TrEMBL record:
Keywords: Oxidoreductase, Peroxidase. This is Peroxidase-related enzyme. NCBIfam families: ahpD_dom, peroxid_rel. GO terms for molecular function: peroxiredoxin activity. It comes from Halobaculum magnesiiphilum. Pfam families: CMD. It comes from the Archaea.
Length: 188
């Protein structure tokens, strides 16, 4: 766990972290080859780590969206929120899951310039609208997704992924979570 995973709150020593969280850190470290700084940062408050990771896992494991779409939403939302951590970390995941070294950069700078299908553009438009103007989202926006071919469950998942990562972006900015160096070169 890197001491500079976040700049505004301390990062606990690995030995100080509860055993269940150490186990999760070990699993992620083995899978990724490094400990994602978001996990080191969240270990500051174990109950929040557990809740955050459980919600994250539900969003990526129990969805009818494909992982590429989930990560595309994360990056488009994070681009609008200027979230350095999520732009870099999830940008790497977009490059990997989409097998496209350019898509994440397009999504971060302006999702409307991304080389994506009309269906996925509708998904991104609604996710970004929920980010920028949540009170302006109406049934018409959900209808846009249905017309694009998304199922009711997929529409729900689009909203949940966008909402969760708006929360994550705000915390990442508030605590100044720093992306791991490894993320910058992944999928390039």
């Amino acid at each position: 766990m890197l001491d500079d995973a976040q700049r505004r709150f301390p990062v606990p020593d690995y030995d100080e972290v509860p055993e269940d969280i150490r186990e999760r850190l070990d699993e992620e470290t083995e899978r990724a080859g490094f400990t994602p700084n978001v996990m080191s940062a969240l270990a500051y408050k174990p109950s929040h780590f557990r809740a955050f990771m459980a919600f994250h896992d539900a969003l990526v494991d129990d969805t009818t969206l494909d992982r590429e779409e989930v990560e595309m939403i994360v990056v488009a939302v994070s681009g609008r929120n200027n979230c350095l951590y999520c732009n870099v970390a999830h940008g790497a995941l977009v490059r990997i899951y989409a097998e496209d070294p350019h898509l994440a950069d397009q999504l971060v700078s302006n999702h409307r310039t991304a080389d994506v299908s009309d269906e996925r553009m509708a998904m991104l438009e609604v996710a970004v609208k929920l980010t920028e103007e949540p009170d302006a989202v109406t049934t018409d926006d959900l209808d846009l997704l249905y017309e694009a071919g998304y199922t009711q469950e997929e529409v729900w998942d689009i909203g949940m992924v966008a909402a969760f990562f708006n929360l994550s972006n705000r915390m990442a900015t508030f605590a100044d979570w720093r992306p791991n160096e490894e993320f910058y070169g992944m999928g390039r």
